[in-house]
Amino acid sequence: MNLLEAMRIYVRVVERGSISGAARDLNIGQPAASERIERLEKYLGCRLLRRSARAFNRTPEGVTFYNCSKRILHAVEQAVAEVSSDEQGLKGTIRIAAPHCFGETVVPEALTLVRAAYPQLDLELVLNDRIVDLVTEGVDISFRLGQLGEGAFIARQLGQVGRVLVAAPGYLSQHGPITEPSELVKHPFIRVQGMFGTDQLPLRHMANIVESAPIRTAIKTSHWRPMYEMIVSGAGIGVLEEPACVDALAEGKLVRILPEFELPPFELNLLSQTQRQIPMRVQLIVTTLNHCTPEILGRARAEVKAHLDRYHESEINKWHAMRKSLSLIDNVAESRSYQMAQQLIVAVFDSVDVAERAGRDFRNFEEKDLGFKIESGVLVQKDATGKLILLDKQTRPFWGTVIGALTGGLIGMLGGPAGALLGFTIGASGGLAEHAIKATFDDDLVASISGKLTPGHVAFILEAQEASPFEVDNIVLGYGGSVFRKPLA
Fold first, then answer.
1. Residue spans per domain, the chain
2. What is the C-alpha to C-alpha distance for residues 280 and 163, in angstroms, rounded to an integer?
3. Mean pLDDT lowest for which of 16-20, 328-332, 393-397, 440-444?
4. Which residues contact 374 (CB under 8 A, 6 or more apart)?
5. Which residues contact 311 (CB under 8 A, 6 or more apart)?
6. Rounded to whole angstroms, how far apart are CA atoms 379 and 357?
């Protein structure tokens, strides 16, 4: 019998965990592979494999023979390489392993470059999200994301694979913007099994401060592609590797959530087996992958950053365009006059907690300088007796000294005369001035507020300038609230 050939089949059977898998790898039939193993055992006079209905295990003799066969086959391979020409030494098959998402988005381009450089080599790509043991699974090279773990291998750091928190624009239009990490838990989160299993999302601020934000897992998948498709279709939010979503971001199918935060990236390493002398073909492919993979990742990272820059620029341009369309142009003086509408905005919410989150969104929107400016605001709640009470402690962090300038403890009795609301006036800092209240808080407005508020409900009463009601309405409705306005005199 051909002992070397039998050793090669036996080693591949052990590494693949099945005779059928080994037969496919070696391009022989399963019956032929089984027959070779049986003949090998008969030749050796011992059992190498202990078979069962579902699997098989190596006997003690099988473990010893496997380790010896690996060394012998490697020595034969090295002997052939040393006496053969360089071209002959580059022939053969290289087996490469990678995680699914990375293997489907980055590795194909890298292997195309490898194949162009060494067309005489055959490549086999094995995709698996679990950690692959190079020796037991017969893999020459493996891409590994995250922690290296244990094992016998040589690791070469290739860089990092960034991750992005994303959602479809349609989803955010329907459910409202996400402006704080604490809001993520209100939205269905879609993830791959094994990721974020604690329902905590690590977020790193630009100042490199890492915090954990709670999430609510709604859908788990065993593969990244269904997760991607569901996020694009608006089924929820999720995290994708940068190479997997760069095209969708560029095409506007996805947008980043909380762009001022980043998820810690995956560390990327290239692993090869620990051998005294690595075959030349493996060395050359490792060198090529070590060179081209960081370039591919760098392009993806640059495109994601460019999308974020374009998004911010687009938002600014939209605002300038809106201002121009609403402005009066003085062609003679080449000057522009613009006046935003002064409004009294009343936004009603179910609870103090919801109103506080909406207040943060109001403040964040104001800081974007997109046509919304708050002059003053109060947060009020109806108590069990029907009185509207100023929640000074809750609103002070939002409006600072403006709230501090308010005097008194009650806005007025529910359904009381408009004059009762004049218990609040503003000092030199500005805000809800007495003349504005006199002109605005008539009996109809008091009745409107009274009809909206029930005991326990909370309302923001804001004096603000706004170019368009869309964003404020979107924030309020996103929290299940209601809003109405009255122009200020």
1. 1-83, 163-264, 341-487
2. 35
3. 328-332
4. 362, 363, 366, 399, 462, 463, 464
5. 255, 256, 259
6. 12
Q: Are 179 and 300 in contact (CB under 8 A)?
A: no
The dihedral through the CA atoms of 439, 443, 444, 449 has a sign that is positive
Contacts of 354 (CB under 8 A, 6+ apart): 458, 479, 480, 481
DSSP-derived secondary structure letter, 213: E
For every residue of 26-61, which 3-state class applies, written as one string?
HCCCHHHHHHHHHHHHHHHCCCCEEECCCCEEECHH
Mean pLDDT in residue range 330-354: 61
Place of tokens 């370039």: 295
CB-CB contact of 379 with 395 (8 Å): yes
Strands (E), 323-473: 328-330, 335-337, 341-349, 372-382, 387-390, 410-413, 458-466
Q: Write out the DSSP string of 72-127.
A: HHHHHHHHHHHHS-HHHHT-EEEEEEE-HHHHHHTHHHHHHHHHHH-TTEEEEEEE
Q: How many residues does the chain have?
A: 489
Q: Where residue 403 falls among pLDDT bands split at 50, 70, 90?
A: very low
Rounded CA separation 487/22 (Å) = 78
Right CATH for 1-83 from 2.70.40.10, 1.10.10.10, 3.40.190.10, 2.60.120.200: 1.10.10.10
Instruction: Quote the CA–CA distance of 284 and 288 in Å, as a whole number.
Output: 6
286: closest CA among 167, 185, 142? Answer: 142
Q: What is the pLDDT of residues 315-330, one digit of tens each?
A: 445 444 544 444 433 3
Among 22-36, 81-95, 142-156, 465-479, name the one with the lowest average pLDDT: 81-95
Is-contact 135 273, C-beta < 8 A?
A: yes
Host H or E run for residue 350: none
- Report residue 212 as tokens: 């954990």
Q: Name the one residue in this structure whose structure tokens are 């919410």.
A: 349
Mean pLDDT of the chain: 75
* Fold category of 163-264 in CATH: D-Maltodextrin-Binding Protein; domain 2 (3.40.190)
Backbone angles phi, psi at 328, to 5 degrees: -100, 125
Tokens representing 43? 């030749």
